[in-house]
Write a structure and sequence with these properties.
mainly alpha, about 850 residues, single chain, 40 helices, globular
């Protein structure tokens, strides 16, 4: 087996696909429960064999680690269970001993791979005290007279393990041992490589050290070694130390008071004079403080009780922080490619300013605006760009009455700066105008509206993609400001035709694939269409055939590479999305039979290729068309129904399944009773999705709600589906969320909203079909669900409103047959609804209460 194992491990690295596949299959076969213990031991023997090729040793270690590891949580738990249940304790002792010896190997790759494997194994065994000698061995490696590289590899191993550990199961003694080893490695008399590995490990361990941080003496010791590390001669160590300080700000904000003066001074000095990567981490500390303080203030504003009071460190630091950040803004990287994933000190400073403004609001203005006003027309482009960036970064913080005057005065200056000779200045200027249109459009002088539109239009075609994309962003946001304008004309109407024409040209530029230009242009077109005034209807009617023509042409696009495939799929997605938006702006009279045929033919063609994103958009476009055609859409159902069924069963691309469920709702409203002939297959598919354990849970609330849509459409014909769907609803209504799990609370609220929508549709549908008596046997269970909701402090207003609506429907349709209607929870629900202050909910409360009062008891 040993020679065969070497052969297979080497084969996994072969350039020959057949050899590689066969080798991988042989190794996979060896992971069955019977062979697993011996196989894992054999891999450790290969890993520790100093006479073996290093590539084989590395492959053995990685395969061993991957037996235990998986990205998917469910698979990870399965892998960990295999280790716990199928590998005997005697073999485990041998396996552990073998890989621990590799940490002292002279081969760097072997040590590194062993560290990863030990970390994965330790993450399983440490919380259950199954590997008691692990931490003592690692500590011995660090504190004893071992070579520097052994100490580094051991600390790296600890760092990996801290990332993988489930801290909730750790005993304090285990955490103490981990911290002891790490702190020993970060001491100032250690070599830089050791200190760096220790600092990284400390960063990874801090989030589960709360018990230690609550002890002043231990907290002082941890803070001391971190602060000392910020003064190391090695930039990597300094950077890692600041990463630890960032973690302190995130996890231990409430403990910072005694250290804040030191941390502020250290970070300010670092931001001013240290290497860029270290300075960026020091800035990140202030970003973290701003985030924490923003969340505290937001919780206070919403009437909550934060865990800690807001110390307003950021506001207090503004006099020293802002000048440093403003200077950092002038250190732009002129050669940076905007399409690259880069992060430099100028970007970090802009982000910090933005977060500081969000947290301190009006207080930031006097610390930033003097710099902006002094440098907006500076001869040096760096200062022009920095002042524009600074101004834009603080726009979302101060109140309009404070920043509005500056915004008003900035418009002509910024429009002029769109003609700046430097590309980066034009880029930032266009972004600034976009943010103003998004946040403070009311401050734009009406007399400057034409100049604004003209200025943005002027850079759409001739400028570099980064500038044009920002102009698209600005036009998008400008159009969004007309969302609630229902007048026959608006300020955009005079420019609508030209803007759409220019943006359509932008989408076809040769450099469309740079700076996200094509999607930005189509998004701007979409927003213009959505908020076009009535007098622009003729322009939109001309645009739809042009978009259909582009979609038709896209089917013939040549696909030779993955980039070609992505381009084709991306374009089809954008075009389908735009078709949906255009249809929403039209009336049934605007859509001729020929046009409808062309739309459906093109959409059906989209569904013929495997393209999840385009399928989502195509489904929504088809739904929009059905909404306009209503019953006339029936003639497309023989072709469209199988497509819908395929979408409902697309469990892997759950976003597509979600949209397909939404389209079923659209079809029920469009076809009404005519949907009945398709319901058997549709309901079966919906039930299958609810029973599929692998389907993303976000789909299920939509599925439950869809039962209500179907019942409303087919009325009494829903009877065959009643029992099975109500059983599903009653089962789903048992879902609960822990009080400390906000994500689960949100999900359960969404689930309950779907349940209530389903009940509403089913009750009303059966009532319309004169079969509402069929719901009576289930009414007690439904009322029990409503009672549970009345006692749940975590329900949101949508669930509350839905519960009151179902109560009203039951009492209206079943009358005196509704059980428990005089129980206290009923009045409690109505009282809560009235207290929301929402007029629609209050009207619902009054209607429901009237139904109850009309009952005879």
């Amino acid at each position: 087996m040993a020679d065969e194992l070497t052969q297979y491990l080497e084969g996994c690295q072969s350039h020959d696909m057949a050899i590689r596949t066969a080798s991988e299959q042989k190794l996979k076969e060896a992971t069955n429960p019977q062979q697993l213990p011996g196989f894992m031991y054999a891999l450790t023997e290969k890993l520790r064999d100093e006479n073996q090729k290093i590539t084989v040793r590395q492959q053995a270690g990685l395969y061993l680690k991957n037996i235990l590891y998986a990205k998917d949580d469910a698979v990870l738990e399965q892998n960990r269970a295999r280790w716990r249940e199928h590998v005997g304790s005697d073999v485990k002792v041998q396996i552990r001993a073998n890989i621990l010896t590799v940490l002292r190997s002279p081969a760097t790759v072997a040590r590194h791979t062993a560290g990863q494997t030990i970390a994965e194994m330790g993450a399983i065994d440490l919380p259950t005290q199954q590997w008691p000698e692990l931490l003592s061995t690692l500590l011995q490696n660090i504190t004893a007279e071992t070579p520097e590289e052994v100490k580094v590899s051991t600390l790296e191993c600890l760092g990996y393990m801290c990332e993988r550990l489930d801290y909730k199961g750790l005993k304090k003694e285990v955490v103490n041992e981990i911290l002891t080893a790490i702190v020993d490695g970060i001491r100032s008399n250690r070599a830089n490589a050791i200190r760096f590995a220790a600092a990284v490990a400390l960063r990874n361990s801090l989030f589960f050290c709360r018990g230690n941080m609550e002890e002043p003496q231990e907290r002082n010791m941890i803070m001391q070694v971190i602060c000392e590390a910020t003064q190391s001669e090695d930039a990597n160590v300094r950077s890692a130390a600041y990463e630890c300080i960032v973690q302190m700000g995130e996890h231990y904000y409430g403990f910072l008071k005694d250290y804040m003066e030191v941390l502020a001074n250290l970070s300010f000095q670092t931001m001013k004079s240290d290497q860029e990567k270290v300075a960026i981490q020091a800035i990140e500390f202030w970003n973290t403080l701003a985030d924490e303080e923003y969340e505290i203030l937001l919780e206070l504003e919403e009437g909550g009780t934060p865990e800690h009071p807001c110390q307003k460190y950021v506001e207090g630091g503004l006099p020293l922080l802002c000048p440093i950040l403003l200077e950092a803004l002038t250190k732009q990287d002129e050669d940076a490619d905007p399409d690259d994933d880069i992060w430099n000190i100028s970007m970090a400073a802009a982000t910090c300013l933005q977060l500081a403004a969000n947290t301190t609001e009006n207080a930031v203005v006097p610390h930033v605006m003097p710099f902006v006003l002094s440098n907006i027309k500076n001869e040096n482009w760096r200062f022009r760009e920095a002042s524009t960036m600074a101004f834009t970064s603080i726009l979302d913080g101060p109140k309009t009455e404070v920043i509005g005057t500056y915004v008003n005065q900035s418009i002509p200056v910024l429009i002029g700066a769109l003609r700046d000779p430097h590309e980066i200045v034009k880029d930032t200027t266009a972004w600034a105008l976009g943010r103003i249109c998004e946040l403070h459009a009311g401050c734009v002088p009406q007399e400057m509206f034409k100049e604004l539109v003209t200025g943005l239009s002027s850079v759409l075609l001739p400028e570099k993609p980064r500038v044009s994309a920002q102009a698209c962003f600005a036009i998008h946001n400008l159009a969004m400001q007309f969302e609630s304008d229902d007048s026959n004309t608006n300020l955009l109407s005079a420019y609508m035709g030209n803007l759409l024409h220019l943006l359509m040209q932008v989408t076809e530029r040769e450099d469309w694939d740079e700076a996200n230009l094509r999607p930005s242009a189509y998004q701007a077109i979409s927003m213009l269409v959505q908020h076009a005034a009535a007098d622009c209807k003729p322009i939109l009617l001309q645009l739809l055939p042009a978009i259909l023509e582009r979609l038709q042409k896209s089917f013939g696009m040549q696909v030779l590479t993955n980039d070609d495939k992505d381009a084709k799929e991306g374009l089809q997605s954008l075009l389908c999305g735009l078709i949906q938006v255009l249809l929403q702006q039209m009336s049934a009279e605007d859509i001729s039979e020929q046009l409808a045929d062309s739309i459906m033919h093109a959409l059906v063609e989209v569904f013929k290729t495997k393209n999840a994103t385009a399928h989502e958009e195509a489904f929504m476009a088809a739904g929009a068309l059905s909404d306009k055609l209503e019953g006339k859409f029936e003639r497309y159902m023989p072709t469209f129904h199988p497509i819908v069924m395929q979408g409902l069963r697309n469990f892997e691309a759950y976003q597509v399944a979600t949209v397909a469920v939404g389209v079923v709702g659209d079809l029920t409203r469009a076809l009404e009773a005519k949907i009945y002939s398709f319901c058997n297959e549709i309901v079966t598919a919906l039930l299958e999705s609810l029973q599929n354990a692998n389907l993303n849970r976000s789909v299920k609330p939509h599925v439950l709600s869809c039962f209500g849509d179907i019942a409303l459409a087919i009325g009494g014909n829903y009877e065959p589906y009643l029992q099975v769907t109500l059983m599903m609803l009653l089962q789903a209504s048992q879902s609960r969320a822990p009080d400390d799990d906000e994500d689960m609370i949100d999900y359960v609220n969404t689930l309950r909203e779907g349940i209530l929508e389903a009940y509403t549709g089913i009750i009303q549908g059966l009532n319309d079909g004169n079969k509402v008596n069929l719901i009576q046997p289930y009414s007690e269970a439904i009322m029990g669900f409503l009672e549970n909701l009345s006692h749940d402090q975590n329900i949101d207003d949508a669930v509350l409103s839905g519960a009151i609506g179902v109560l009203g429907d039951l009492t209206k349709c079943l009358g005196n047959q509704v059980p428990n209607v005089r129980k206290p929870f009923v009045m409690q629900l109505l009282k809560k609804g009235h207290e929301t202050g929402d007029q629609a909910t209050i009207d619902l409360v009054n209607w429901t209460n009237g139904n109850i009062q009309s009952l005879s008891f």
